[in-house]
Amino acid sequence: MIIAVLIRLTSKGPAFFSQDRVGLNKRPFKMYKFRTMVTDAEALQANLEDQNEAGGPVFKMKDDPRVTKIGKFLRKTSLDELPQLFNVLLGDLSLVGPRPLPFRDVERFDEYWFNRRFSIKPGITCIWQISGRSETSFDKWILQDLEYIDHWSLALDLRILLKTPKAVIAGTGAM
């Protein structure tokens, strides 16, 4: 509740943000987050494409001008992800699994093998989350997702869940 109030007090627009993401078997679902950007951020992205700092089809910018002041803090601490627990309750997300991508990114996949990541339910945290996040190349990110799929076990999920708080506190690769 405190986060929602801070967002509303420091920027115009709703406290929550929802975006269509690609889930299990490429089924679309609405993913919920605390809003960390200005309300028209998706429309403004087209003007920033030439400043994309990520390789591959994803869009990442370290000093994205669309991010609000409170949004920077929420992203650095991953507190913006808390509403995704609602997605877990709805059955769209798992606690652990490949991070769900927006349709914009998936439509730009140029390798068929990238699609294997949709054979399992996406998650809130994953190997990528605990291994450097945005400091990881896109191809390595996908390979980590496939490694997770190929070696899934309850023990692996527990290891990832136990390492996630340290990665979040360290803030490595957070944008």
Fold and architecture overview:
It is globular and about 45 Å long. The strands form 2 sheets. Strands 2-1-4 form a 3-stranded antiparallel beta sheet. A two-stranded parallel ribbon has the order 3-5. By secondary structure, the chain is of the alpha+beta class. It contains 8 helices and 5 strands. It has helices spanning 2-10, 41-44, 69-77, 84-90, 103-106, 127-130, 138-150, 154-170; strands at residues 16-22, 28-34, 94-96, 101-102, 123-125. Strand 1 (16-22) and strand 2 (28-34) form a beta hairpin.
Task: Describe the SSE topology.
Elements: H1 2-10, E1 16-22, E2 28-34, H2 41-44, H3 69-77, H4 84-90, E3 94-96, E4 101-102, H5 103-106, E5 123-125, H6 127-130, H7 138-150, H8 154-170
Parallel strand pairs: 3-5
Antiparallel strand pairs: 1-2, 1-4
List keywords for this structure.
175 residues, alpha+beta, three-stranded antiparallel sheet, two-stranded parallel ribbon, 13% strand, globular
Tell me briefly what this model is.
The chain is α+β, with helices and mostly antiparallel strands and 175 residues long. 38% of the residues lie in helices and 13% in strands.
Summarize the amount of helix as a percent range: 25-40%
- Mean pLDDT, rounded to whole units? 90
Q: What's the total count of β strands?
A: 5
List segments where confidence is low: pLDDT < 50 over at least 5 consecutive residues.
none
Instruction: Describe the strand arrangement of the main beta sheet, using strand numbers.
Output: 2-1-4
Q: Strand-and-helix sequence, N→C?
A: HEEHHHEEHEHHH
Number of helices: 8
Shape, principal axes of CA atoms:
globular
Largest sheet, in brief, is:
3 strands, antiparallel
C-alpha Rg (nearest Å): 16 Å
Structural class: alpha+beta
